[in-house]
Structure formats: C-alpha cells, structure tokens
Amino acid sequence: MIAEYFKRHAQTLVFTLGRLYQRPVATALTTLVIGITLALPAGLHLMVSNVNSVGYSWEGSLTASLFLADSVDDKAGQMLASDIRSRESVRGTSYISRQQALEEFRALSGFGEALDLLDHNPLPAVVVVRFKTNQSPDAINATVRGLSELPGVVEAKLDHQWLDRLFAILATVQRAAMIIAALLAIAVILTVGNTIRLDIENRKDEIVIMKLVGASDAFVRRPFLYTGFWYGFLGGIAALILLGIAVALMAGPAGHLAALYQSSFVIRGLGFSSSLGLLGIGVALGWFGAAWTVARHLGAIVPR
Amino acid sequence: MGDIVYLHRVAKRYPGGHDALSDVTLTLEQGEMAFLTGHSGAGKSTLLKLIALIERPTRGQVVINNQNISKVRRSQVARFRRNVGVIFQNFNLLNDRTVFDNVALPLVIRGETRDTIARRVRAALDTVGLLDKERQYPIVLSGGEQQRVGIARAIVAKPPLILADEPTGNLDPELSAEIMDLFQRFNEVGVSLLIATHDVELIRSLPYREIQLKGGHIADRAAAAPYETPQ
Ligand SMILES: Nc1ncnc2c1ncn2[C@@H]1O[C@H](COP(=O)(O)OP(=O)(O)O)[C@@H](O)[C@H]1O
Ligand SMILES: [Mg+2]
After folding, report:
1. How far is B175 from chain A (nearest CA, A)?
2. Which of A12, A114, B1, B88 is positioned for an S-S bond with B92, CB 3.0–4.6 A?
3. Is B65 a pocket residue for ligand 1 (Cβ < 6 Å)?
C-alpha cells in the first residue's frame, strides 16, 4: 500500500518530466530564466567569499612599522630588530636606519634637493615587523600594542587600514547580496507561478474532465506541483552550469592577478554541499511557486 | 431501500434567475434503466448534473444510493462522484492521452495498481469492442468509437449508477442503436441507468420507462416512479 503510494508519486514525477520534454523550447526558456535568477545571487555570494579569502590570505603578510626614537643608535636598533624577530608570532623583521630611510625617501619621492636644505635628517629609524599567518586581527593588534610600549619605540603602526576597509566593503556587499537574493527568490516564485498558471489555463478542459470522473483536488494538484519541482530543479542545474562557466572564465585572470601579488590564491567554485543547497533552494522555490498558484487558480475550475 | 435515485420536490434556479427545474419528484429503482426525454431546454442536463453533483439544487432533496447529497461536503464530492459513471454528449475525452489512458483515468484516480488497471481497462474496452484501439488517440477515432471510449471509461470502475446525457446526440441511427444495445447489456448485469435523450424514435421500441420533462416539470407524473399508479 505504501509502496503503491510512492510508486504513484514516482510515476507522476516521470510523467510531468515527460510533459515538459514535449515542449522543449518553452521548458528550456523557463529553465534558463530561473537558472539566471538563481545564479545571480549565488555568483555574488561566490565572489564575496572568494575576495574574503584573498583578504585573509593577505592578512598573513601584514606588517607593522616601529618608529624609533632618535636617541636609539643603529646598533641598538639592530638589536631590537633581532629581539623582535625571535618572537613566536613574528615571521621576520628588518631594520631601516635613519640614513637608509633618508636615501629611500630621496630615491622614491623626488624631494632630494629639498632634503639637502635641511641641516639634519628628519626621518626616524624604522623596524619593519612581518607577522606570521594564521593569526586573528585582534591578536596582531595586541602584539602591535605591546611593541609600541618597548623602550626606544616612539610609535607602532599596523598597515592594515586598507584591509579593514576591504572587509567593511565586503560586509556591505554581502548584505546587499542577501537583499538581492530575497528579491530574486520572489522572482523565481513568480516565474514558476506564472508558468504554472498558463499551464493550468491550457489544461482547463483536462482538469474539468478529471474532476468529472471523480479526481480529488489532491490528484489534480499533484502534476502541477511536480512541474514546479522540475522547474526549480532544472533551474538549479542551469544555475550551477552558469556558475561553473563563470568560475572557469574567471580562473585565468584571477590566477594572473594572484601571481602578481605572490599569492597562491585559486578561485573557488560553490563546492558540493553549497551546490546541493542551491539545488534545494531552487526546488523549494519551484514547489512553493506552484503550490501558491495552484491554491489560487485550481479551485475556480469546476465542471459546469 | 430499493431506490438508487430519489428526487423530492427539487428545484434548480441558475444564477441569473432562470428556473431550469421546478418541483421535480422522481425515483429510479436499483437496477432499473429509464429514459429522460424532453425538448431541448426542458431541463434534462440540469437534472443529471444534480445527480452527479455537478450542480446543487436550489430546493428539495436529492438522495443517491441512500445518501442525501446536501450532506456531501465539497471535499467529499470527488469521492461521491466515483459511484456515478457519467457519459457525455461531447465525449469529454483527453485528446493527448491514448484510449487506454483515457479509460484508465477513473482507476488511476482511485489509486488502483497497474495490474488491476490493465486488466479492467482491457475488459471495459472489450465490452465496447475497442480492444484493438487501445494505443490510438481519440482524435483519430470516429464519433461512434469516441463515444464507446467514453462509455468504457464510465463503466470501468463498475459504478452502480450510470448517467448518460444525449449519448447518441452526435451519432447516426445505426451507431445509436449499437450504443443502446450496450446500455441494455449493462442493465442486464444489474447496473442502474438514467439516459437523457431527445431522440424519441430511438427509444420508442425499447421496453423502458420514459420520464418526460417539459419546461422544468415532469410532464407525466405517472411515469415519475416505477410503481406509481395514475390517479
Ligand atoms: N449554467 C447555466 N446557467 C444558466 N442557465 C442555464 C445553465 N444551464 C442550463 N441553463 C438553462 O436551463 C434550462 C434547462 O437547460 P438544460 O438542463 O441544459 O436542458 P436540456 O438538457 O433538456 O436541453 C435552459 O433554459 C438553459 O438555458
Ligand atoms: Mg442537455
């Protein structure tokens, strides 16, 4: 009895797929529309998470600059640098003497002649500290605060402002993506709903006949619900294919960009569980769109 | 009780105020076959629709198989209809399904198993002489054949009552006689039938009761019940 029940549902499932297959162009168009609608927010999400991971991988190469007091001579400065280098969280340090700093500035800024007018070197000596990867921003901040309190250190500055900004931008984009996703979910529901509504309109006679020979509402409803299921499922597959193509197109340029920054970053696709999730969302939206339309339109079709 | 159909003082007013039936009282016995006659517009279709629960009466009682249909809720209508096989003048077949699938519909709706469906559909098609047409689509069949598909669909689930609304309305006399033959055979195995027709020629020679409608009334009250004697 239970087996019969499942068999009947499986039959309806196959039957409705067959009906969609009989109208390949219409089905393909609807599927594509749903696929694009699903792929847009999923693609945005993918982009944000990829840029996020780039951000985190760059956070590993964070540096801090320790500006030293003029009273600290080169020898003491180099000692300080090697002291800090031996710390657990530090990957490396380099000491830039006041003289080196001046030469570097001269070379880079083009203000060489202006500096010659000064009677003493205005630039401080600097210890550049590079941190190890796998540390939270908070831990690094704490370390930098500790370094700033070392004797001879006037100021410690973490060069991470741009990363903070990047993450803030990403959080904003993420929020926008959620809003867009919600709107596009409604768009999927409306697309499926409208397609099913036309289907119901076209099958009016058939529905009347079914009801005349004693079909229950549930029986009449079932093929439309499964049609909604198929639209959601096929649309989800289309979205996954579109995303796959997009990732493949992005992989080359992204890899090149990463290479320029000496990063081993590789663009990532949705992954298995997220792909299943997208399919599930597609199916749920398709089913809901169909159920909603069927509830609104099927009751009005009665034999006369 | 011995009545499969019992109408008591039934009236039907359509929205818009047209009285299709007024004060109709009639019975159809269990296992009886009767004709419902009258001119076009007399109310024959309306009467059958009340029995099949396609329309609801404005007044009066309709009792089918000892069940008062005013007590049948909307959600139970589908289940109720399965006890009544209806044959339509315009066949009402699904043109995108094969003859087999059309006839199978009432059984599919009931959730019968594949084997049961196949067996009973073939039996019904055999009865109406269309066993060799099961893979065809209705559109390629003649009018007489399409009507026989409709009849096979009406009998396939073995309902105790069959209603036919002008089943021979679109057929020539010879085919019409064949259809009547079929109905008589069903009646011989105990099925009750109420057949609406305006073709008096066709039924003149047949030994069944005729219930005549005229402008929404029973024209001859004596014929309204099998054992009622004229007053
Ligand atoms: N759905 C309807 N709405 C309004 N009037 C109707 C409807 N169906 C039938 N009628 C009217 O009811 C009367 C009886 O119709 P009907 O039962 O179809 O008669 P018959 O089948 O004997 O020709 C006719 O005058 C017809 O116009
Ligand atoms: Mg009529």
Report:
1. 24
2. B88
3. no
